[in-house]
Amino acid sequence: MTKKTEVAIAILYRHGKYLLQLRDNLPNISFPGFWGFFGGHLEAGESPEIALQRELMEEISYPLSAANFFAHYADERVLRHVFYAPLQVELDQLILLEGWDMDFFTPEQIRQRDRYSTKAGEARPISPLHQKILLDFIDQKIVNH
Question: Closest by alpha carbon to 94, among 58, 47, 65?
C-alpha cells in the first residue's frame, strides 16, 4: 500500500472574507489555474503545523503564530490537514511569492465559484475541493462572518 502524500492547508480569514491564492497555471501542480488555499506538502519528519507555518512564509511571507485544526480531507492519494486562523495583516502587507494572484472572497463569492483575477485578466474557478472545504467551514459557523 502506497503512503498518502500529506499536505497542510490554511483557511485564512479577515473581516468575514477568506484569502485564496490563484495557483500558477502549470500542468505539474495540483489544481493549476484554480483559486485555492495556501499551504503545501509536509517535509520528512515535519508536523502539519510546522509545515503550514513554513509554507505560509514561503508563499506569502506571513509569519503564522498559531492555527486551529479544522478537519482532515482525504482521497486515495492525499491526506489534507486543514487549519484555520485569522489573518492579522492587510492584504497589501503580504508578498505573493508563489502563485499567480491572491484575493479575499466573501462567502457569496465562494458559492459562485468563479472569480475575476486582474493579474490573469480573466475569471478563474475555485478548486471544487477547496470550495467544498470552505463551504463546510462556513456552514459550521466556526468564526463570525
Answer: 58
Per-residue confidence (pLDDT) for residue 31, from 0 to 100: 81
Neighbour tally for 10: CB within 10 Å: 26
CATH class belonging to 5-139: alpha beta
Phi, psi (degrees; rounded to nearest 5) at 20: -125, 155
pLDDT digits (tens, 9 = 90+) for 35-51: 999 999 999 999 999 99
Question: Interior CA angle at 107 toward 117 and 113, to 5°?
Answer: 45
Q: The dihedral of CA 11, 31, 28, 98: what is its sign?
A: negative
Written as nine digits, the cell of 86 is 485569522
- How far is 48 from 82, CA to CA, in rounded Å? 9
Give me 52's grid cell. Answer: 503550514
Residue-range domain boundaries for the chain: 5-139
